[in-house]
């Protein structure tokens, strides 16, 4: 097969000349194609069949044990000028980067099939969507891309019509961590990834395209590409507010996106609609509001901790037609991870389970499932114009200081809250876990350009005629002296969201403080929750001296972006700092 688009044909031929595959397969995205890939992977051992009685259409993939998460230290943004990548990215000169990685691609597909995957990020008919083509030698990547994106014939048609697409070249390579690079060339709309078969390193539509490249494009074109979930909250009157929330990797986006209301809320008629769990593209609409689409078509969710109690919607979604990566299995061959009932017999590496080897499922083990399988999947998620956003929420894992919820006084203050975000690191990237680091807007690993320019871009949305969402900051992860989480989290988070919506609708007054507006006494509805007054007080207290230290640290962090830091943001930090010193 070939394409009507000469530029695409030429690129595919050039890649084939370098990588020298035995055959080239253009993916059409059909069921037949998917089933054939699965059969082939069952034969090669890339997939292992799970219990088809309990989990029809479910398979397990075990990745190489050295290849289980994103590798931020091997991820590069290769802009012409080093300063355009910013201190938030690793940089390499484009010519050097191409030379280095092209050498690895030389002959790397010999004797094997090269797959050409045309995909669309976002609904096929949406003007907000963007297309790409990923070339890979990994059938596992093809199967995952089919679930995570709109992949195949319809996307190819759109690409041929538009003539413009992001080029992504991937090979699993030898899985040698010394020969592994994830390189982005935003000015060339090009991605090259070698030596990893895992998630965000290999499914190039996801973090590489929909965040790093898209954020770069979004800045030029006046929109936002963000690491956010999108959720619709329908109140008993039938009105739905859409909320977008940025939490760092493995900090609760999937959980909030699929939230099940507490019993009393359910009885009163509250409903929650899932629009997206990881990535959000937001464009200003003609009415001045921000409209969001989820560029993805599936969920690549964290398995451990997903349970009937924490996320029943996810559990229902993954009961069939799901690919599991690096989970454990039970005696009767069902997928298993920490948080589920039952006992593992085989760990994520295929060894007999022995607690001495650590958790049975890898902490970053994942499921890949079509969004359509989610019981709360919103019909609006397929709509071309996207959903209007009422509130933007920032949050991270902060064991102390940050209150359960606070609201920014205005857009600039909200941008400061997002920029100042911090969180303890998680297993979603290789490296130490539990270390507090700044992760502005949860985009530290994903912003494809200088953070200073990114903050300027965020601030630029505040202009005459704009009807911007309110901005909030939440912390589900505050810990008490006993080291336990103070807030029950999960479904109960709806109580906090209800307060936000009341603020949006002008129904809650709140209390103004130097750090933002907090819920006034009695405004958070806590009935039915066994939370002591002391715990609530601790969750909402304002430790002035702790905040003074925090504002000082935020100031130093902002200064690290040098002369690209918008002075407006530094002014905002000074304003809050001064307010904290005013008795
Ligand atoms: P990525 O897919 O990596 O971007 O992550 P995500 O933000 O979608 O993460 P996810 O929702 O899968 O969160 C995973 C972890 O957060 C699990 O360990 C959950 O138990 C924990 N978590 C989620 N929501 C809450 C909450 O409200 N409270 C507490 N304490 N933990 C939570
Ligand atoms: C994340 O790490 O934020 C993820 C998983 O959502 S990955 O696709 O690997 O980036
Ligand atoms: Mn993510």
Automatic annotation (TrEMBL):
Residues involved in Mn(2+) binding: 207, 227, 278
Gene3D superfamilies: 3.90.228.20, Phosphoenolpyruvate Carboxykinase, domain 1 (3.40.449.10), Phosphoenolpyruvate Carboxykinase, domain 2 (2.170.8.10)
Stored InterPro entries: PEP_carboxykin_GTP_CS, PEP_carboxykinase_C, PEP_carboxykinase_GTP, PEP_carboxykinase_GTP_C, PEP_carboxykinase_GTP_N, PEP_carboxykinase_N
First-tier enzyme category under EC: lyase
Cofactor binding comment, as recorded: Binds 1 Mn(2+) ion per subunit.
Pathway linked to the protein: Carbohydrate biosynthesis; gluconeogenesis
Binding-site positions, substrate: 70, 198-200, 249, 364-366
Source taxon at top rank: Bacteria
Cofactor(s) in the UniProt record: Mn(2+)
Gene Ontology annotations for the cellular component aspect, listed alphabetically: cytosol
Domain Phosphoenolpyruvate carboxykinase C-terminal P-loop residues, every copy: 223-576
UniProt KW keywords: Cytoplasm, Decarboxylase, Gluconeogenesis, GTP-binding, Kinase, Lyase, Manganese, Metal-binding, Nucleotide-binding, Pyruvate, Transferase
Main localization (coarse): cytoplasm
EC number: 4.1.1.32
Reactions accelerated catalytically: oxaloacetate + GTP = phosphoenolpyruvate + GDP + CO2
Binding residues annotated for GTP, in chain numbering: 250-255, 366, 397, 490-493
UniProt-annotated catalytic positions: 251
A Pfam cross-reference name: PEPCK_N
Role description: Catalyzes the conversion of oxaloacetate (OAA) to phosphoenolpyruvate (PEP), the rate-limiting step in the metabolic pathway that produces glucose from lactate and other precursors derived from the citric acid cycle.
Family statement drawn from the similarity comment of this UniProt entry: Belongs to the phosphoenolpyruvate carboxykinase [GTP] family.
Name of the protein described by the UniProt record: Phosphoenolpyruvate carboxykinase [GTP]
Source organism: Dyella monticola
């Amino acid at each position: 097969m070939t394409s009507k688009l000469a530029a695409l044909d030429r690129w595919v031929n050039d890649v084939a000349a370098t990588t020298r595959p035995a055959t080239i397969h253009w993916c059409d995205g059909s069921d037949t194609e998917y089933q054939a890939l699965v059969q082939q992977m069952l034969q090669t051992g890339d997939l292992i069949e799970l219990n088809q009685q309990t989990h029809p259409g479910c398979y397990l993939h075990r990745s190489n044990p050295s290849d289980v998460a994103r590798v931020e230290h091997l991820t590069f943004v290769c802009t012409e000028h080093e300063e355009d990548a910013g201190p938030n990215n690793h940089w390499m000169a484009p010519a050097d980067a191409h030379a280095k990685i092209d050498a690895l691609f030389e002959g790397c597909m010999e004797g094997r099939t090269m797959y050409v995957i045309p995909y669309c990020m976002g609904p096929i008919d949406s003007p907000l969507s963007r297309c790409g083509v990923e070339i890979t030698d990994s059938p596992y990547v093809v199967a995952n891309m089919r679930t995570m994106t709109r992949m195949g014939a319809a996307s190819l048609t759109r690409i041929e019509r538009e003539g413009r697409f992001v080029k992504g070249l991937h090979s699993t390579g030898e899985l040698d961590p010394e020969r592994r690079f994830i390189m982005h060339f935003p000015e060339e709309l090009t991605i090259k990834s070698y030596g990893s078969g895992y998630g965000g390193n290999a499914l190039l539509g996801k973090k590489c395209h929909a965040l790093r490249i898209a954020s770069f494009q979004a800045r030029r074109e006046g929109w936002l590409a963000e690491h956010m979930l999108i959720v619709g909250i329908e109140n008993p009157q039938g009105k739905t507010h859409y909320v977008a929330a940025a939490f760092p990797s493995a900090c609760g986006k999937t959980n909030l996106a699929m939230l099940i209301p507490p019993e009393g809320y359910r009885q009163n008629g509250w409903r929650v609609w899932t629009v997206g769990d990881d990535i959000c593209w937001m464009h200003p609409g003609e009415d001045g509001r921000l409209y969001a689409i989820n560029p993805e078509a599936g969920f690549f969710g964290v398995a451990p901790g997903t349970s009937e109690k924490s996320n029943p919607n996810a559990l229902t979604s993954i009961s069939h037609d799901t690919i599991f990566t690096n989970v454990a299995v039970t005696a009767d061959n069902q997928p298993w991870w920490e948080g589920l009932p039952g006992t593992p017999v085989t760990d994520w590496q295929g060894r007999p389970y022995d607690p001495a080897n650590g958790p049975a499922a890898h902490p970053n083990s994942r499921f890949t499932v079509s969004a359509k399988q989610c019981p709360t999947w919103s019909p609006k998620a397929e709509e071309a114009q996207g959903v209007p956003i009422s509130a933007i929420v920032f949050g991270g894992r902060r064991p102390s200081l940050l209150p359960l919820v606070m609201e920014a006084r205005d857009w600039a203050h909200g941008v400061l809250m997002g920029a100042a975000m911090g969180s303890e690191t998680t297993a979603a990237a290789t490296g130490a876990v539990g270390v507090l680091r700044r992760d502005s807007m949860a985009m530290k690993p994903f912003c494809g350009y200088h953070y200073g320019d990114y903050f300027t871009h965020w601030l630029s949305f505040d202009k005459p005629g704009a009807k911007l969402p309110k901005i909030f900051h939440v912390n589900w992860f505050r810990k008490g002296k006993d080291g336990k989480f103070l807030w029950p989290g999960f479904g109960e988070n709806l109580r906090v969201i209800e307060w936000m919506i009341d603020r949006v609708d002008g129904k809650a007054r709140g209390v103004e403080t130097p750090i933002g507006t907090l819920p006034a006494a009695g405004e958070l509805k806590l009935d039915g929750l066994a939370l002591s007054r002391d715990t609530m007080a601790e969750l909402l207290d304002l430790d002035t001296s702790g905040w003074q230290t925090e504002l000082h640290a935020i100031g130093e962090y902002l200064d690290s972006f040098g002369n690209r830091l918008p002075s407006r943001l530094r002014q905002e930090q000074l304003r809050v700092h001064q307010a904290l010193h005013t008795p």
